[in-house]
């Protein structure tokens, strides 16, 4: 029998590719940009598996395009808001993700953003590079202390906890709110009002979309910094532009934005108190390689009719005879 076709929507690190290529007919979308929608729907035709990214929308139209032999979707990410999981479950298609392996790497970035915003590192680097650093100055680019400040974590899952551990190492006071309600913490309003730094770590759901809008921002201290490494849509972008422009909050550091990427002329890219990096949360060599292996393992298990090692919709297995692993 021919090797099953797997479409991979971007070149992934070698570890995962090797696993796939050993047993599958792998097609990889070339280039840095995601496949346009039409190309995605065309390339997935006849595939048994799809290894996709957060930038690829997986929905009813995609399942229809793939056809009856489609067995598994594997997202190279822990978040899966790009996938219509209800639709996948109805069709009996398991969805894989890559939890755990990127926790510490993402928290490293979140804490890095926090420090960078607090100490105005990017403004300083820009000044030095522009040749505008003419002398040491007693009031030059004064920032805010990280040590001793209060960190408010919104979303106390794996990455939120990893962020809290880093903060304790910096002698910060940590308070948190867990809107999903699993961990006992403070109310969101209390966290927003008391924190010097607010760091977002919630998944994007109906409940968290637009969680940080005008009202939430107005509760924050005028000296506070917002850090977002979760999903851009958790923050109301226009409200954030208003808050940063009017001094409602002091600064923001964003790894994720809405839209993503921001158009080159977007005001967030020009506000001196806003730092934007291009969705780099899990982007370390080691972590992306581990993610690629996990994503490939999800594909391979799905092709064999086994339970995925990391499955976001285990309901697909209810009442289904599985090949034991
Ligand atoms: C990245 O955004 C992820 O969800 O892993």
SSE pattern, N- to C-terminal: EHEHEHEHEHHEHEHEHEHEEH
The helix content is 25-40%
Helix/strand-derived category reads: alpha/beta
Oligomer: single chain
> How many strand elements?
11
What characterizes the major β-sheet?
Answer: 6 strands, parallel
Q: Evaluate the radius of gyration.
A: 22 Å
Mean model confidence by pLDDT: 96
What is the CATH superfamily of the largest domain? NAD(P)-binding Rossmann-like Domain
The name CATH uses for the topology of the largest domain is: Rossmann fold
CATH class of the largest domain: Alpha Beta
Q: How many structural domains can be distinguished in the coordinates?
A: 2
Q: Say which molecules are bound, naming each kind only once.
A: glyoxylic acid
Bulk shape: elongated
Strand percentage: 5-15%
As residue ranges, the low-confidence spans are: none
Measured distance between first and last alpha carbons: 22 Å
Order of strands, widest sheet = 7-6-8-9-10-11
Q: How many DSSP helices?
A: 11
The CATH architecture of the largest domain:
3-Layer(aba) Sandwich
Summarize the structure in words.
This protein has helices at 14-23, 37-43, 60-66, 85-90, 103-118, 121-129, 158-169, 188-194, 214-219, 237-246, 285-304; strands spanning 5-8, 25-28, 49-52, 72-75, 95-96, 150-154, 173-177, 197-200, 225-228, 251-254, 274-276. The protein is elongated and about 75 Å long. The model has no long low-confidence stretch (mean pLDDT 96). 43% of the residues are buried. A six-stranded parallel beta sheet has the order 7-6-8-9-10-11, with helices on both faces. Strands 2-1-3-4-5 form a five-stranded parallel beta sheet. It has two domains: 5-101 and 285-317, Rossmann fold; 103-276, NAD(P)-binding Rossmann-like Domain (Rossmann fold, 3-Layer(aba) Sandwich). Helices cover 34% and strands 13% of the residues. With 325 residues, it is α/β, with parallel strands linked by helices. It contains eleven helices and eleven strands. Helix 3 links the parallel strand 3 and strand 4 (72-75). Helix 1 (14-23) packs parallel to helix 11 (285-304), helix 2 runs parallel beside helix 3 and helix 5 (103-118) crosses helix 7. It binds glyoxylic acid. Residues 54, 77-79, 102, 281-282 line the site of glyoxylic acid.
């Amino acid at each position: 029998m021919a090797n099953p076709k797997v479409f991979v929507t971007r070149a992934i690190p070698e570890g995962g590719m090797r696993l796939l290529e050993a047993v599958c007919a792998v097609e990889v979308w070339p280039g840095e940009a995601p496949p346009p929608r039409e190309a995605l729907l065309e390339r997935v035709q006849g595939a048994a598996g799809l290894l996709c990214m957060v930038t690829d929308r997986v929905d009813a139209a995609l399942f229809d395009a793939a056809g009856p032999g489609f067995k598994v979707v594997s997202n190279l990410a822990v978040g899966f808001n790009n996938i219509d999981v209800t639709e996948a479950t109805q069709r009996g298609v398991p969805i894989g993700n890559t939890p755990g392996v990127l926790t510490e790497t993402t928290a490293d970035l979140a804490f890095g953003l926090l420090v960078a915003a607090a100490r105005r590192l990017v403004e300083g680097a820009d000044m030095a590079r522009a040749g505008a650093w003419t002398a040491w100055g007693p009031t030059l680019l004064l920032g805010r202390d990280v040590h001793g400040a209060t960190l408010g974590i919104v979303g106390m899952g794996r990455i939120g906890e990893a962020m809290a551990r880093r903060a304790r190492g910096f002698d910060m006071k940590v308070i948190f709110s867990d809107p999903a309600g699993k961990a006992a913490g403070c109310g969101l309003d209390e966290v927003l009002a008391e924190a010097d730094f607010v760091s977002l770590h919630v998944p994007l759901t109906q409940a968290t979309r637009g969680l940080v809008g005008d009202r939430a921002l107005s509760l924050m201290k005028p000296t506070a910094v917002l850090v977002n490494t979760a999903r851009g849509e958790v923050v109301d972008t226009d409200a954030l532009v208003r808050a940063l422009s009017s001094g409602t909050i002091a600064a923001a550091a964003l790894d994720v934005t809405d839209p993503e990427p921001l158009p080159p002329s977007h005001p967030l890219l020009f506000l001196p108190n806003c730092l934007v990096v291009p969705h780099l949360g899990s982007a370390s060599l080691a972590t992306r390689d581990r993610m690629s292996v996990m994503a490939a393992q999800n594909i391979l298990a799905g092709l064999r009719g086994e339970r995925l090692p990391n499955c976001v919709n285990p309901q697909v297995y209810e009442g289904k005879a599985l090949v034991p692993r």
